[in-house]
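ARCHIVE ENTRY
Sequence with per-residue tokens
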Amino acid sequence: AADFNSDRLLSHSVSSHLEQVNILLTQFVNTADNGSGESGHITDLLVANRLYRQAAVVQGKQKLATFLADLEPLLIELAYQAQSGSPATRERMQQEVEDGLLFRVRVMNQQLSKSVTSV
């Protein structure tokens, strides 16, 4: 039962995390300015992402760990370069998010939500 609870807790926690990432990415894609006030929040999401990825590895959830690892470079770039980067860099990052990352975040979040509620 302990494995079941920790498994469910991880799914719920990562689902909440992905909801925050979804909001962040949606705002990023839909705003033209650099929004430098967000860098602290983005850094928090980056740290949380790393912790959830490590927990997923420990629990043997390879698909989830790989997905979170895929998110990490963009979160790093958002945290450290989006504010100071050139408009071209920002446009490239927005295109990357629009071209599928935002969709992948939403799909993974739906799958996690289902695994939490279907028990």
Observations:
- The chain has four helices and no strands.
- The radius of gyration is 15 Å.
- Helices lie at 2-30, 39-58, 62-80, 87-117.
